[in-house]
Amino acid sequence: MSTVSATLRAATQRLAQAGIPDAATDARSLLAHALGVPRSRLTLLGPEAVTRAQVEAFEALIAGRLERRPVSQLVGRRSFWGREFLVTSDVLDPRPETEDLVARALEHPFGRVLDLGTGSGCILLTLLAERPEAQGVGVDASPAALAVARRNAEALGVQARAELLCSDWFAQVSGRFDLIVSNPPYITEDEMAALSPEVALHEPRMALTPGGDGLAAYRVICAQAGAFLRPGAPLLFEIGHAQGAAVAQIMEDAGFAGVAVLPDLSGKDRNVIGRWCG
Ligand code: GLN
C-alpha cells in the first residue's frame, strides 16, 4: 500500500521524464482531483495510504497527461474571472489573457450583449454574471461547444438570460446589441506549427485558427456587425499580439470610429475596440 506522498513523487518523476513542463504542479493537481480534495490539503495527507480505486483514477489521469492532454480537460474545469467553468476537448480552454476582454467590456454599459464564438461561454456568461440586469446571446458554429456553454450557464445560474445559438457568426442572430464581443480564432497558419502539443492535439482547431493570415474572422465579423449594433455601440475583440494594426484597419474600413488598440499589462496588444457610427 502506497502513501499519498510516495504516489505523488513517483508520478512527478514519470511526467518529468516524459518532458512534461510543470510536472510537479500537474501531478499535484491531478492527484488532488483523484482524491477529491483541494490541492492545499495534499501536504497534510502525505503519510496517508491511497486506496486501490484512488490509484486507478490517478493512473488514468497521468496516462492522459502523458498523451499531453491539458490538465483542465483532465479535471474538467478551469477558473476564469473567479468562477469555475466546465472544460472539454470541444471548447477552447479559457485563457487568463481573455480576462482582459471581460475587463474592457465591463467598462461599458450594456443591456444586451452578443458574444461571437462563445465556446465554453466564459466571456458571455461572466458578463451576465457580473451584470445581473443584462441579457445575452452567445453563438458558436460547434453544437458540442454549445452543449458545454449551456452547462456552464446553468452552473452559473444565468441560463434564463443567456440565449445560446448554433450559428455561423451572424447567420442566426437577430436584433441589435449594446455591445458585441468576440475572441475569434486568430492564430496564423505559420504559428499553428509552433503550438504546444497540449493545444495542437487537444484543443479544437476551429477555435484556434481560421487558417492563412489569421484575420478571416475579423473581416467577416466587421463587415456584418454594423447591422447588429445600436448607433455608437462598441465592438470589442481579442487579438493576437501582432494583429493590432491590421484589425484596427479592418474595423476602420468597415465604418467603425474611435478605433483603439489596447495593450495588456505586459504592454502587448491584446484587444481592439471601435464604435459603430455607420
Ligand atoms: N469565447 C471563448 C473564449 O474566449 C472561445 C473562443 C474561441 O473558441 N476562439 O475562450
From TrEMBL:
Q: What is its EC number?
A: 2.1.1.297
Kindly list the biological process annotations in GO that this record carries. methylation
Q: What is this protein called?
A: Release factor glutamine methyltransferase
Keyword Transferase among UniProt keywords: yes
User: Where substrate is bound, by residue?
Assistant: 183-186
Pfam families recorded for this chain?
A: MTS (PF05175), PrmC_N (PF17827)
- Catalytic reaction annotation: L-glutaminyl-[peptide chain release factor] + S-adenosyl-L-methionine = N(5)-methyl-L-glutaminyl-[peptide chain release factor] + S-adenosyl-L-homocysteine + H(+)
Q: Where is the Release factor glutamine methyltransferase N-terminal domain?
A: 8-76
- Family statement: Belongs to the protein N5-glutamine methyltransferase family. PrmC subfamily.
Q: Keywords of this protein's UniProt record, alphabetized?
A: Methyltransferase, S-adenosyl-L-methionine, Transferase
Q: Where does S-adenosyl-L-methionine bind?
A: 117-121, 140, 169, 183
Q: What is the protein's known function?
A: Methylates the class 1 translation termination release factors RF1/PrfA and RF2/PrfB on the glutamine residue of the universally conserved GGQ motif.
Has keyword S-adenosyl-L-methionine? yes
User: Mind listing the GO molecular function terms for this protein?
Assistant: nucleic acid binding; peptide chain release factor N(5)-glutamine methyltransferase activity
- Tell me which Gene3D superfamilies the record gives: DNA helicase RuvA subunit, C-terminal domain, Vaccinia Virus protein VP39
Residue ranges of the Methyltransferase small domain?
Answer: 101-213
